[in-house]
Design brief:
Strand content: 15-25%
Helix content: 25-40%
Structural class: alpha/beta
Number of strands: 23
Length: 597
C-alpha cells in the first residue's frame, strides 16, 4: 500500500469523484515504496498538480485527473479544451499540456542539484531517474477514447481511462498503465538521501533549517550553495502536517520528534485561509519568543497571535476591563488568581468566547486541566480548530496532578484524531542514550486510552555524534572556567556563539558564577530574559532549565549537576528537568559537577 499525502481521509472531501477513485487505486494497487501526493503545491511557484507519484526505481510521474464525459468535450487542441457545462461553454487548458508544464518546471529545478544528476558521460547533467507526465480520464473508457480523435492531442500511452482504474483491475495492469507513460527508464535506484533531496526541492514548506532562529529554512537558496545534507520533515511528519483537518487534535510526541515544527506548519497554513486571528499558546516565555519570531519570519504575524499562557490571561483581563488580582506578580498565589479571574470572566460573559478561528497549544503537558477548559472555549465553534502537542516525559510543572485526567474531561474532543510520534530527530543517539540514563523511570512507557495521557519512550533516528562528556572538577568556578575554554575552542573551530548555550538550575550560585566567568573572559553571553532569535544576536545563551523547553542548540553545557534528595518525588522532578535540559543539545553535550558539591 502506497503512502498518500495528505491521508485519504483528510482530503477526500475536497476531491472530485474521479480523484477519489484514482487516489484509492494509488493506495491499493501500488506497493509500500511508492510515495503519492495529492494537490500539494510544488516549487517556489506553488503550482498544484493533481497527483505526484515517486518511486525509487521507476522515477517521478505527474498526473492531471479530469472527470469530463465524452459528450461534454466540444473541441480540444494541444493547448486548450472547450467544454459544455450547465452554465454554457467553458474553456480550460489541455490537461496533458498542464501536466507537461508541471513536470518540466520540477525537473528544471531538480537538474540544478549536482547530487541528482549524472556527473559525466552522455547523460551528464540529466536526472539520475526518469520522469514522465500523463492524464487520467476518470469518466471516459478506452473504447470511447479510441472512437474519437482525442488521441491526436492526448498521446494514448499517456492516458489512463475509466475502465483501467476500476477496483477490479489487476495491480500489474494498473502499474503498467502508469509506467507506459515513460519513454526511458532503468536508470537505477534512488537512495533515501536522494529521495529527501527531491522532496526538499519539490516542497519548500517541509524544509528544516539548521538554525534555531527559523522554523522552515532554505527558501531562496541557490543551487551552488546547496549543502551536502538537506533536511526535510520525515514522511510521517509531512503526512501528519498536511493531513491535519478541522476539529480537535492531539499529538503525543517525544522530545525532538518535530511537534513544534508541525505546529508551525499548521499555523502558517491556517494564516493563509482564516479570516479571524489564530492563537498559539505555551507556558514558557522563551518558547513564546521563539514561536513569535518564526511567525514574523514567515510573514504571518499579523494573523497569528503568540503568547505564553499567563501573558494571554493578563491581556484578556485588561482588554475587557475585568480587572487584575490584588497585589502584584510577586505575591504568592497571584498567577493562580489571575487565571481564576479569566475563567470567571468567561463564565459571566464579561470575556467573549470563540475569539480565535484556531487555537494551537505547544508543550501542552505544562498546562493544568482547568487551563485546557478555559482555552477550549476560545475556539470559534464554526471552525472548532484546536491542536494540542503533549509529552508527559517533559512535564515539569505539577506533573503528578495533571496525568490523571482525560482530554474529554477538559473539553478536548480528539477521539479518533490522536497521533503518536516516537522518533527523536533532534538529538544524536549518543546524547539521547546519555540523557536516558538520568531519567530511566520517566521514559518507561505507560499505556493510556486514546483519550488519556500515555508516556512514550523515545526512539533514536540513528544520527550520531560525539559522546557527551561528564566532567568532575574541584569547584563551581573551575566548571565555569572549563566551559568558557571549551566554548572558545568551539568558536575557533567555526561554531557561532549563538549555537551554544549554558543551562542551569539555580541562579545562586550557578547562573551568577557562569555569567561572571564569561564576561571576564570577554565572551558574549545573554540571559534568557534578554534573548532574541535569528542572526542578530550572536551570543552564548544562559538559560534556566525551565526556560530551555522547546529550544535547541548544537552545543550545550550543564554545570553543577547533582540529584541528591531523600524525597522520591523531588528526585523525579529534578531528573525530569535534567532530561529536558540535556535533550536541548543537538550535537554536543557537556555535563559538569564539582567535588565540592
Amino acid at each position: 500500500m502506497s503512502t498518500l499525502i495528505p491521508s485519504y481521509s483528510s482530503c477526500a472531501a475536497r476531491m472530485t469523484g474521479g480523484e477519489r477513485r484514482f487516489a484509492q487505486r494509488l493506495e491499493s494497487k501500488l506497493e509500500d515504496d511508492y510515495l503519492c501526493w495529492y494537490d500539494v503545491p510544488i516549487g517556489q511557484s506553488m503550482r498544484h498538480p493533481d497527483f505526484v507519484v515517486l518511486h525509487p526505481r521507476r522515477g517521478l510521474l505527474i498526473l492531471e485527473v479530469k472527470d469530463w464525459k465524452l459528450d461534454t468535450i466540444q473541441s480540444i487542441t494541444k493547448s486548450d479544451v472547450t467544454l459544455l457545462t450547465d452554465k454554457g461553454l467553458k474553456h480550460a487548458a489541455n490537461p496533458l499540456e498542464q501536466a507537461r508544464q508541471y513536470a518540466h518546471a520540477v525537473t528544471n529545478v531538480l537538474e540544478k542539484d549536482p547530487q541528482l544528476v549524472f556527473s559525466s558521460g552522455r547523460m551528464q547533467g540529466k536526472l539520475l531517474f526518469p520522469w514522465a507526465y500523463g492524464v487520467v480520464l476518470a469518466n471516459i473508457s478506452r473504447k470511447q477514447f479510441e472512437s474519437t480523435d482525442l488521441g491526436d492531442v492526448l498521446e494514448p500511452h499517456r492516458v489512463i481511462c475509466q475502465d483501467e482504474m476500476v477496483d477490479s483491475v489487476e495491480m500489474e495492469a494498473f502499474q503498467k498503465r502508469l509506467w507506459d507513460m515513460f519513454t526511458v527508464g532503468g536508470y537505477g535506484k534512488l537512495g533515501l538521501p536522494q529521495i529527501d533531496r527531491v522532496r526538499w526541492h519539490m516542497f519548500p514548506d517541509i524544509r528544516l533549517s539548521g538554525n534555531q532562529g527559523e522554523l522552515f529554512g532554505g527558501e531562496g537558496v541557490e543551487p551552488a550553495e546547496l549543502p551536502d545534507i538537506l533536511r526535510v520533515m520525515d514522511l510521517q511528519q509531512e503526512q501528519l502536517a498536511r493531513s491535519l483537518g478541522e476539529g480537535h487534535r492531539v499529538i503525543h510526541g517525544v522530545a525532538g520528534s518535530g511537534k513544534t515544527l508541525i505546529l508551525g506548519y499548521r499555523a502558517e497554513y491556517l494564516a493563509k485561509v482564516c479570516t479571524k486571528p489564530i492563537l498559539i499558546l505555551c507556558y514558557n516565555k522563551s518558547l513564546a519568543k521563539r514561536l513569535e519570531h518564526w511567525m514574523q519570519e514567515k510573514g504571518v504575524a499579523d494573523k497569528v497571535v503568540v503568547q505564553n499562557f499567563h501573558a494571554w490571561c493578563h491581556r484578556q483581563l485588561t482588554a475587557y476591563n475585568v480587572g487584575l488580582p490584588q497585589g502584584n506578580a510577586k505575591r504568592e498565589g497571584y498567577w493562580d488568581d489571575l487565571v481564576d479571574k479569566v475563567i470567571r470572566g468567561v463564565d459571566r460573559k464579561l470575556i467573549p468566547s470563540g475569539q480565535y478561528e484556531a487555537v494551537l497549544i505547544d508543550e501542552g503537558h505544562d498546562f493544568r486541566p482547568e487551563w485546557f477548559k478555559l482555552v477550549v472555549q476560545m475556539v470559534d465553534p464554526h471552525t472548532n480548530s484546536l491542536l494540542v502537542l503533549y509529552d508527559d516525559a517533559q512535564s515539569i510543572y505539577d506533573h503528578g496532578e495533571k496525568r490523571n485526567f482525560s482530554f474529554k474531561s477538559v473539553g478536548v474532543q480528539a477521539q479518533g484524531r490522536t497521533t503518536v510520534l516516537k522518533i527523536n530527530y533532534r538529538n544524536t543517539q549518543e546524547v539521547l542514550e546519555f540523557a536516558a540514563r538520568f531519567a530511566k523511570e520517566l521514559l518507561s512507557p505507560s499505556e493510556a486510552s486514546e483519550d488519556g495521557v500515555p508516556r512514550l519512550a523515545p526512539v533514536s533516528a540513528g544520527r550520531h555524534g560525539p559522546k557527551p562528556l561528564l566532567i568532575k572538577l574541584p569547584t563551581l568556578k573551575d566548571e565555569a572556567k572549563y566551559i568558557v575554554e571549551q566554548f572558545k575552542a568551539a568558536h575557533r573551530d567555526g561554531t557561532a556563539w549563538r549555537d551554544m548555550a549554558v543551562l542551569y538550575r539555580h541562579w545562586e550560585p550557578v547562573g551568577k558564577t557562569i555569567i561572571r566567568a564569561f564576561e571576564n573572559a570577554g565572551v558574549p553571553i545573554t540571559s534568557h530574559k534578554n534573548m532574541e532569535f535569528g542572526d542578530k544576536q550572536d551570543t552564548v545563551k544562559l538559560i534556566t532549565f525551565h526556560s530551555s523547553k522547546g529550544l535547541e542548540f548544537p552545543l550545550v553545557a550543564i554545570p553543577d549537576v547533582s540529584i541528591s534528595t531523600d524525597d522520591d518525588k523531588a528526585a523525579e522532578d529534578e531528573a525530569r528537568l535534567l532530561y529536558v535540559a540535556m535533550t536541548r543539545a543537538t550535537k554536543e553535550l557537556l555535563v559538569l559537577e564539582s567535588e565540592a558539591a
